[in-house]
Amino acid sequence: MNFQKKALLTVVAAGLFGSLQAVAQDAQSGVKDLEAGRYNKAIQTFQSLATSAPSADNYFYLGYAQLKSGNPDAAKQAFEKGAAADPKSQLNNVGLGAVALAKKDRATAKTLIDNALKETKNKNIDVLLRAGEAYTMFRKPEEGLNDPAEAIRILTIADERDKKNENAEIEMALGDAYTLKNDGGNAVSKYENALSIRPNDAEAKYKIGNTFLRAKNYAEAQKFYAEAIAADPEFAPTYEDLAEAYFGSRAYKNASKNMDLYIQKSQTTNIDKLLRSAQFDFLAGDFNKSIQKLDQLEGKVKNPVIQRIRGWALSGLGKYDEAIQALENFIKAAPDKVIYDDYKYLGRAYSQKGTPEGDSLAIMNLEKAAPQDTTENLYREIGKTLYTAKRYDRAATAYKKAIAVDTAKATTNDYFQLGMSNYLLGSRVGRDSTMMMGGDTAAIRQAKEKFYAAADSAFLKVNKVSPDWSPGYYFRASANYFSDTKGAMTTGEPVPMYEKYLEVSDKEIAADAAKKEANKRYMMTAYKFLSSYYANKNDAVKSKEYLTKAAELDPTDKDVQNALNPPAPQPAAKPAAKPAAKKQAGKATK
After folding, report:
1. pLDDT band at 298 (very low <50, low <70, confident <90, very high)
2. How many other CB atoms sit within 10 Å of the CB of residue 112?
3. What UniProt keywords apply to this chain's record, in alphabetical order (predicted)?
4. Which residues pair with 301 in a beta bridge?
5. What CATH topology corresponds to 467-561?
6. What is the pTM assigned to this prediction?
7. What is the pLDDT of residues 142-167, one digit of tens each?
8. Strand ranges (DSSP E) for 379-430?
9. How far is residue 214's CA from residue 245's CA, in Å, rounded to a whole number?
């Protein structure tokens, strides 16, 4: 934001001859501070100038700096003094119009600005420029009202008045207006026009970067911000938006570093900026630094957002009880400002308590965050917590949602955990008191088939996503076996799955011998099933083949050894000799 230097002549003329040079230097210093976003310093300079040389222009710049620093009430006082100092000068009336826009009073703003343009007959380029700027001043909707179409109308008149095309400020302001209209092409063209007038201008390069930032083209934005910094390392706004560009590309350490540079170079005391800096520190993993900044703000402001970032940072430090307290306080104090991240970090803090109540509150809060979180798939966390708590029904639902959120990025583990949740539900049917189906054997059978079929479907997906990972084959085979235990020996449905499991498992062991012990239990189950199946089919060769492999894997397994080497039959025991019949005692004679 470069300012017209012509206004400085008024400042100079207002001073005594002996102090002309000092006043002019002060004014130039104030303008440079405004350009660099050092609004507090600029306010001090123009406050001093307005006191020593109370001109309409000095009051205008003072009001402008106060308005840019977010203090419309102080700006209004300065503009009113400027208007009184020179009723013919319309700059301060435009400033008052900008104050009305800051207060979202469009009607008053239009009246003041239109009247200023009318009084100058649309001929004063400075008034036209500032009027156009007023309609593009507020970057965020909560800061005030913008009207880019009206800005373009007014600035086009100013551009036509600039016959020699010497005024880069008009091109910059037009670029701002097109940026607000999301017309990046025209915005960049106007900024490039400004560069043709003022080559290597840092502000123009910075604003070109902003068009790319708005389009979320973070790499291109960073490129232009780097050029702006090379052109003028003291132009503070560049560092703030470069930090945002790094934030957008998740380069949080660079975001934190550049936000610190912005604060240092702008000397800002704006609470929102300081809180944003603490947030970037948190994201960069520097939790202590984040909390130190928040401590410096404690008691100075009533913004409840301090508690939000404190809660996030405390969670990162593992101080979960304190994090929960801070986040609960924030949510209670500012329910309208709560975002999904607040529930996410609150849920994660609760999950660390290691209690059933903590798990329940963790899931409740994560479920509030999950639908809105586009950076992390929180349904995975929900599923993991539920699975650990043996809430397999809800875990299955969570993993289904995790897969549905972004199927293209669904992982092997997503499908495997979905399969295991259904697999374990199937194992509970008819055994768990909550899944007895009223003792109805037909209902029990149908429920088992339902859960094991869902498990089979998930494990099949595991096999497709990770064909060289053996557990997927093993549990798919087991799901098919337990779905119909008696029928499995007849149909042989699990056979190819167990055989594939053993094939893949052998490859895993060949690549890493340590996996032999890890796979041993499952391999023994597969060998025993296959041996029993082929024995049932009267294929003694195949049956013995699998028994032999089982014996090699675990020579201590008694069942396998007995099947391979059944004990010799014992000779039948001879029947015990019958005892001799007792002689009947003779009857007593009378």
Report:
1. confident
2. 26
3. Signal, TPR repeat
4. 298
5. 1.25.40
6. 0.71
7. 788 999 999 999 999 999 999 999 99
8. none
9. 9
